[in-house]
Amino acid sequence: MNFISPAPCFVNWMIRQDEARYNKQYLIYKRKLAIVSEGNRQDAGFYFCTDIKECEKRFDTMGIALPEVDMLELLEHGRKERDFSRMSQRYKEYFDLYYGCIRNSVISNERKDIEKAKQYIQDHYKENLSLEILADVVHMNPFYFSSYFKKNANMNFKEYINKVRLEQAVSLLLSTDRTINEIAAEVGFRDVRSFLKIFQKYHGETPGSYRKKIIKS
């Protein structure tokens, strides 16, 4: 029996999370398997099960956790189906399960990366943070990181940095008697003019009037 590896056809699309191409390539894989097995359902079941286990090994090396399945149990599931079409659909359920596990793993890793970037901003907001610096923190290409951050944080990285700096500025405005210039420098703005412009954009008034209003109330 010739071994058919699923890697060249649909497994790569599973990894890329391209559902349309994954499903299309699975159909091609299924047809090839039917031809090679020459109508022998036992051979077909063996091919399916072997490829499912190969997927399991491949994803394990990538650090993707998958539910482990027993080879004999897989074969038994195939034998219970009355024809090749039903057998192929039954085994596709396993591949679909793996597809979902990969998606969940990707989502989990994205959350970890975005939280890592946010924490770095929280710890270093006083510094001159750039796109390149933050991208390097999570080991991403700067251009990809820019869109990635906006997608996951619902604002671009510069807006998020300004948000963190303004939170710190408000705290200093209300708890100290430092001047506006001192506070701007303390929270990481390169000049007081930038600080005033961004503060007014977010709060609708100058830092001085904001301070007076809060203290008075």
TrEMBL record:
<feature type="domain" description="HTH araC/xylS-type">
    <location>
        <begin position="115"/>
        <end position="213"/>
    </location>
</feature>
<keyword id="KW-0805">Transcription regulation</keyword>
<keyword id="KW-0238">DNA-binding</keyword>
<dbReference type="InterPro" id="IPR018060">
    <property type="entry name" value="HTH_AraC"/>
</dbReference>
<dbReference type="InterPro" id="IPR009057">
    <property type="entry name" value="Homeodomain-like_sf"/>
</dbReference>
<protein>
    <submittedName>
        <fullName>AraC family transcriptional regulator</fullName>
    </submittedName>
</protein>
<dbReference type="Pfam" id="PF12833">
    <property type="entry name" value="HTH_18"/>
</dbReference>
<dbReference type="InterPro" id="IPR018062">
    <property type="entry name" value="HTH_AraC-typ_CS"/>
</dbReference>
<keyword id="KW-0804">Transcription</keyword>
<dbReference type="InterPro" id="IPR020449">
    <property type="entry name" value="Tscrpt_reg_AraC-type_HTH"/>
</dbReference>
